[in-house]
Amino acid sequence: MEEEQRDANNSWDLIHFSLLDVASIESRSGEMTSSHFAEEAPVRRVALFGGTHGNELSGVFLVKHWQQEGEPEIRRPGLQTKPFMANPRAVEKCCRYIDCDLNRVFEKENLGKPLAENTPYEVQRAQEINSIFGPKGSRDAYDLIFDLHNTTANMGSTLILESSRDDFTIQMCSYIKGALAPEVCPVFLIEHPHLKYATTRSVAKHPVGVEVGPQPHGVLRADILEKMRKIVRHGLDFIRMFNAGQAFPPCTIEAYKIVEKVDYPRGKNNEITALIHPDLQDQDWRPLHPGDPIFLTMEGEAILYEGETTVYPAFVNEAAYYEKQQAFVKTVKEALSARGIRVSQN
Ligand SMILES: CC(=O)N[C@@H](CC(=O)O)C(=O)O
Ligand SMILES: [Zn+2]
């Protein structure tokens, strides 16, 4: 099955090769140099966030490990790498959050709000994080944040991007995907006019989410932790090579872009009246066709997907999303192209 999916990915890349040509021709007239590489500032300050959600234990465990002095695994020449526990109070209690979801409160408005007695703990913490790693949107902000998450869904190693126009992170994802092959590493794009949320990592110039599953919250699995660890190591390698002057030619990757959140069927008192259908369970990133079953009622009746186009579900049966009234998200495949990049010399 994985073999098939890879072949499909390859032919898909070929189809979109013409797109890539167009991108590099267009960019000749822009700010590109004569050899078509956009020059970008070096990426010197990188943070590794764990425990943004206190019960997602791979990131919590890795950050604790890396915080031991002089950890060579995350050290790279010319790079300052800071492991950081984003929500220590939630980590202590092994829960997602104390008052509200930290990974939803990084709107500029929250970050500038005067603190009051009833300010939620996570909003206070967001302001601290913003002052250490931001300010969000400013020149002083950290260059890049890897934010480490786990999901109960069968999403494998997933990278989460917030912008389709960030050449550096698209190039990095392309590198990580190549380094992990033949294992697949889907890229999930949360860019959307109203479904995008204000993440912890968004204080950095280049925000990168790392989402690995399936793993129950509050549980550590060695296989899942190892997948997360590999992504971080390859990501840091990419940054080191970029800073050292390596040029990366234009690239196009396949991404899954969020298009809609789907809630469970609910009754009069808002209670859930159907479960994720067994045919959909664990099928993240697999095509969901019109007419396929998505839910199963207690009477054994299947509820079908009534859309008109094929979509690719993700976060199927994510435990943390029951309270967000979300059974899964629908995504569509999209080509993400980046210009060639190399580090600016001055
Ligand atoms: C299961 C989970 O926590 N997922 C993350 C996804 C992300 O970091 O964008 C969240 O909802 O914040
Ligand atoms: Zn999380």
Question: What this model shows, in words?
Answer:
Helix content is about 25%, strand content about 25%. With about 350 residues, it is an alpha/beta fold. Strands 3-2-4-7-5-6-8-13-12 form a nine-stranded mixed sheet, with helices on both faces. About 40% of the residues are buried. Residues about 1-35 have low confidence and may be disordered. The structure holds N-acetyl-L-aspartic acid and zinc ion. N-acetyl-L-aspartic acid (KKD) binds near residues 199 and 211. Pfam families: AstE_AspA_cat (PF24827), AstE_AspA_hybrid (PF04952). Its main location: cytoplasm. Its EC number is 3.5.1.15. Keywords: Cytoplasm, Hydrolase, Metal-binding, Nucleus, Zinc. It comes from Pogona vitticeps.
Short note summarizing the structure:
By secondary structure, this protein is of the alpha/beta class. The protein has helices at residues 2-15, 17-27, 57-67, 88-93, 108-111, 121-133, 167-180, 222-243; strands spanning 37-40, 45-50, 80-85, 144-150, 156-161, 187-189, 206-213, 251-262, 274-276, 293-297, 302-304, 312-314, 328-338, 340-343.
